[in-house]
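agent> fetching stored inputs for the glutamine docking request
agent> found them:
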Amino acid sequence: LNRRLDGHGTTIFAEMSALATATGSINLGQGFPDTDGPEEVREAAVRALRDGRGNQYPPGPGVPELRTAIAEHQQRFYGLTYDPDTEILVTAGATEAIAAALLALLEPGDEVIAFEPFYDSYAACIAMAGATRVPLTLRAPSFRPDLDELRALITPRTRLLLINTPHNPTGLVLDPTELAAIADLAIEHDLLVVTDEVYEHLVFDGAHHPIAALPGMRERTVSISSAGKTFSFTGWKVGWVTGAPELVTAVRTAKQYLTYVSAGPFQYAVAEALRLPDSYFDGFRADLLHKRDLLTDGLAAAGFRVFRPAGTYFITTDITPLGEKDGIEFCRSLPERCGVVAIPNAVFYDNADAGQSLVRFTFCKRDDVLGEAVSRLQQL
Ligand code: PMP
Ligand code: GLN
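agent> prediction call returned; pasting tokens
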């Protein structure tokens, strides 16, 4: 392994899901739903496969049907207008979008400011690009960014702000004031913004606001989302990038040499998914809101300190009230102690102390599974 990938061994998600399988535990670690997305969307994928749409290399930027549907979705929910031909790129999940964006836009030695705790692929991809990550630590209990601290982190080497709202793992949803302040800094210092909005449809308190919609931001922002989260098809790996033509062209250039194109038939199905009526998006959010409250209350009753998330399908907790200090040790022993798997937030930090006693649980599981997990955790 080269030095760039030093310290980026096996991802925590693979490690913890393997532990869940090996011990037969309930997996509230890795974020994937235990119920697949809408039947009609699955049927659309089957139809595409059967009718021979997308079984051979699709166009590099993605099939036109999907790019058009992505443009319509951005217009419908946020009033953002993107040209499907020049301003939209389909990727192999948001993961590839993040990798291609960072590889395309960063020079070796550039600094990237990202909220810490950060989703693990950010750190690895910044490293692969030869750039340096500069963490802005989000602190309990609110996990809101300190914007003066953000300003102070900007140096002449800063090239890019990498933001994530709704934020995995804290559930923070950036509010319009915070987004405006971040946008002002980006404009003042001529920075690019890469924004990971894969949980855009999972906001329970407040609303999702894309930073690309703010004045002066469209031309400097690469926005990323994914069908995995919104439609509960994490295995399909269909994601996308939207942005100004020069930025999307740069990301596309990198994508060509990572995967060349993304799998075809699922793209046609996701095009149909994006056009589902509002009732789908509302129902999805209502269902997850109910699960958020179920698990928040259950974890609190089990003795955790719970930070109720405004968005995503994750809950961050503090294990200190249980007499525990170290989340990594806690998560390694939890399957044996009570048959539940969770993720230690410490792995998402450079300043590991800040996340030492924090542990993340996902609630994108059936109610009976969440109920059983809570009753097991109450035995601790
Ligand atoms: N960004 C964040 C914040 C995520 O939580 C995830 C997946 N869980 C991804 C990106 C990756 O998305 P995909 O599965 O579409 O690659
Ligand atoms: N994003 C999901 C999570 O945070 C997992 C994705 C992955 O396994 N890479 O749990």
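agent> quick read of the result: The pocket of 4'-deoxy-4'-aminopyridoxal-5'-phosphate (ligand 1) is lined by residues 31, 93-95, 119, 164, 168, 196, 198, 226, 228, 234, 239 (CB under 6 Å).
agent> awaiting further instructions
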